[in-house]
Amino acid sequence: MTTGSNVAVPPIFGIDESKVLLCKTYSQAQEIYQTAQDNQRIAIIGAGYIGTELSESYANTHHEVTLFQSHDQILNNYISKEISDQAVQLLKDHGVNVLLNHQVTAFTGNDDGELVIETNQGDFNADLAIVGTGFVPNTELLRGQVEMDKHGAIIINDYVQTSDPDIYAAGDSCVVNFNPTGRSAYTPLATNAVRQGALAGANVFGNQQRYMGTQATSAMQLFDHTLATTGLTLAMAKLNHIPAERVTYEGNWRPAYMPSTAKLMIELIYNPENRKILGAQFLSAHEVAQSANALSIAIQNGNTIDDLAFVDMLFSPNFDEPFNYLNLVAQQAIEQERQAGRNHPRITAYGDWAKQNDKDLQ
């Protein structure tokens, strides 16, 4: 079963207006492309991946763009408020009018033929609105026949097999096994769909390949910056009742003595109890998406901040500092733990041994 998902249509009055479009399928994308050529003022409803990327695309084609988001940040399931603030500033610097904490309540028209967008903070006019407020799994066909979660997403096991052993599921119709929490989650991403689909194709001939799960690793190009993320944010960790701490690294991606460099911001999330890496977010004018892939592997493998701090990484001033920035953010986390009195158990044990044997050592 790879029946995919549909756009989550919010219960907004007037959402069936002709000037209000949804964004999910190829035919919807074609309609958006065609209508945008004759409409200058574009309203985007929802600042997830689709809404944020559409805002960038329209800004690059010299449209007047207003992005409405009901939360106090954009991409709230993927990045922290601090990195969101930086991304919002990037959008504003390129002419996007970002309206946070604006809940759209209705779409109506006026006598001038304009689309009126009613919100909890006033009305706004536009020529066209595009709604991108998430997805819901398209699983009615199997309702009551296999186990599903509260979203209606099909539950799968380690071989992408449903509760009916003769039915496998993949893609937006089912959950993923989310490694940072150890629980299933509904995370409709193309990368998950491709991997699950390949596994289903192999495992229908006998469960041959286990599903490794996912860290929901993703990235986007936001004007001249790369924004990348993997695993949990601090807020999402706390929401899942997982002990978590955060450190933020801010520096250059390569030495300042090189002909050029750029600022890099990394937020690293880790569990202070077992020191395992839980997640990370990156923002830089430099291409840092592959670093999110590296930390995805670290989370997958259960690596700790101690592993990451000294793992072997190449050095060339063309590419990084003598310690790669991934090493440096992990070393920062170790120092934060030391200052909090939470040394690594091996270090604490050595310290106790040293105290007991101090006279002999002298």
Named CATH topology of the largest domain: FAD/NAD(P)-binding domain
The name of the CATH architecture of the largest domain is: 3-Layer(bba) Sandwich
DSSP strand count = 17
Can you tell me the number of structural domains? 3
Q: Segments where pLDDT lies below 50 for 5+ residues? A: 348-355, 357-362
Q: What is the CATH superfamily label of the largest domain?
A: FAD/NAD(P)-binding domain
**Cα shape:** globular
**Helix vs. strand class:** alpha/beta
Summarize the structure.
The protein has 362 residues and is an alpha/beta fold.
Structure in words:
The chain is of the alpha/beta class and 362 residues long. It has 3 domains: 5-135, 3-Layer(bba) Sandwich (FAD/NAD(P)-binding domain); 139-203, FAD/NAD(P)-binding domain (3-Layer(bba) Sandwich); 218-346, Enolase-like, domain 1 (2-Layer Sandwich), CATH 3.30.390. It is 29% helix and 23% strand. It contains 10 helices and 17 strands. The strands form 5 sheets. The protein has a 5-stranded parallel beta sheet. Strands 13-14-17-16-15 form a 5-stranded antiparallel beta sheet, sandwiched between helices. A 3-stranded antiparallel beta sheet has the order 6-7-8, with no helix packed on it. The chain is globular, with a radius of gyration of 24 Å. The N and C termini lie far apart (70 Å).
